[in-house]
Amino acid sequence: MVISSEFVSREDIRNRKFGEVWHTLIPYVFKDVPEYYDVGNAVASLGTYPLWTRTFARVVHARMNDLPRGAKVLDVASGTHDIPLRLLAMNPGLEVHAVDGSSAMIAEGQRIAKERNFTIHAQVCDAHSLPFPDASFDVVTIQFASRHLEVIRAFSEIYRVLKPGGLFCHNDMLRPSSRIIEVPYLIFLRASVWCTSRLFGASKEARRCVGYFADAIHNFYTPEEMTALLYELGFTNVAKRSLLTGTMCYHIAQKSMKADRYLLELFADPVPEERATMR
Ligand SMILES: C[S@@+](CC[C@H](N)C(=O)[O-])C[C@H]1O[C@@H](n2cnc3c(N)ncnc32)[C@H](O)[C@@H]1O
């Protein structure tokens, strides 16, 4: 894995600008919103959010067709389990794990899962340090969360826990590639987050984040940059689809087999001819 200096410095800027918000305010925001999170998202996105997440979940499901029954899926920063619930509805045979930094979001997700008779193995943890051994999962998903994370650190963890050849499915609101889209979009986003927070009586901390959501997108990656970053992190076969040049965008990438093959070869028993010459 070789990360170019451009991405390292972009991450550095994001950490300096938003590190404090991520550590101090974001946990309070997601403690506050579980009951109105889904409705709030639908309002803030003028109804596109549920359609886009449904499309993403269907694409993930279609890409998982070759996997055996009981394939292991991990949803990182799972919130109220939107993606796990959609995947289980399409394929109840999956073994689904979920992690999130907010116990309140997980509790709401678990309540819905129980209501629908689904099992989701959930735990509270930081997305930058996943409590699973290397190569544990066939598929890892993350939706609407990487804007709030140190992307290189979090995606490296995802790479580590994926099995060789496993799929990484990423969905988020990215920075639009087109300035003509970006400028009005961020004005709209600021206004809609403000209205949503007032409408649902958000906490003081959540109200202090109103400007953050648009700023975080302005400092985030465009769809093309996200593709380049995924390749630099070692993923292959990166495919993407975006709405309005990145207001919503998903990427499906694969963990390379190559690095692991290289390691296997390095530690494998010598082949018979080599053994003969070694005697
Ligand atoms: C916008 S919500 C998205 C939830 C869910 N993935 C969805 O699509 O509905 C962002 C989630 O990221 C979680 N989160 C933010 N920073 C995190 C971190 N460092 N580690 C784990 N979870 C984090 C929040 O608790 C929240 O549940």
List keywords for this structure.
single chain, 279 residues, alpha/beta, Rossmann fold, seven-stranded mixed β-sheet, 12 helices, binds S-adenosylmethionine
Question: Could you describe the 3D structure shown?
Answer:
The structure is a single chain. The chain is an alpha/beta fold and 279 residues long. It has a single domain, classed as Rossmann fold (3-Layer(aba) Sandwich), CATH 3.40.50. Helix content is 53%, strand content 18%. It contains twelve helices and seven strands. The longest helix is centred in the N-terminal third of the chain and has 28 residues. The structure holds S-adenosylmethionine. The site of S-adenosylmethionine has 18 residues, from α1.
Strand order within the widest beta sheet? 3-2-1-4-5-7-6
Instruction: Give, in order, the helices and strands.
Output: HHHEHEHEEHEHHHHEEHH
Biggest beta sheet attributes:
7 strands, mixed
Determine and state the CATH class.
Answer: Alpha Beta
If you consult CATH, what is the topology?
Answer: Rossmann fold
Beta-strand fraction estimate: 15-25%
Overall pLDDT confidence: 88
Number of strands: 7
Radius of gyration: 20 Å
Q: Provide the list of bound ligands, each named once.
A: S-adenosylmethionine
The number of domains is: 1
- Choose one word for the global shape: globular
Number of contiguous helices: 12
Poorly predicted ranges (pLDDT <50, ≥5 residues)? 261-279
CATH superfamily: Vaccinia Virus protein VP39
Distance between the termini: 37 Å
Second CATH tier, the architecture: 3-Layer(aba) Sandwich
- Output the structural class: alpha/beta
How much helical structure, as a percent, in the residues? 40-55%
